[in-house]
Amino acid sequence: MAANPKMSKQNLKVVVAEDETLFRDFLVRIIRQRFGFEIIGEVATGEEAYQLCDDHRPDLVILDLRLPGITGQELAERLINEQPEAKILIISSVEDPKRIGSLLQMGVTGFLNKKEEFSVFEQAIEAVANGNIFVKASAQTQSDSPDVLDQKELLETLSDREKQIVVFVASGMTNKEIAQNLGLSIKTVESHRSNISKKLKIFDIAGVTLFAVRTGLVTL
Questions:
Q1: I need a surface site. Which of 38, 140, 145, 206 has the fewest CB within 10 A?
Q2: pTM for this one?
Q3: Mean pLDDT of 111-123
Q4: Separation of alpha carbons 60 and 126, rounded Å
């Protein structure tokens, strides 16, 4: 799988923070072999990750949610406040829809379960590096999403702007393309998408597309 041409291999700097050595090595191997990004640090604690980020201001930060010391969530919150340009992918072996929604609302760019297959990690890294929100939820997490009968009511909780963005997401547009179309910043689009995910309890593009079809926002 080749790296997406939207990403610059030469300039993209990555920090990986994961306390399980074998899993950290797995992530680093994907990043180096599949994408050719520059790994500026691979560490096991939140404190080490924060220092690296403070020194080097990476473009992409991959964090275990439960790091020793400063947790992944605490570190993500710091980075979002101090380095809002950084893209953050949270990884965890535990899924909680409310926690995922909270992370997206905070400004995290992606969430991924550690149990996913190799190819899904590639998809997640590529999407987040390009500034797109990526959340791969398990069947158990997705079962907590609202059923069809509730979706018409949920549609009414969305603002007109959020409905526009749902349509664009369902049509396959990236955050950059949506921002250009609506005359917004990419950060504003990411914020809208986080709000949409929280309101709908839907955390992946396929789910958003299905919601848009079922509620009549788009037709296939």
A1: 140
A2: 0.63
A3: 87
A4: 10
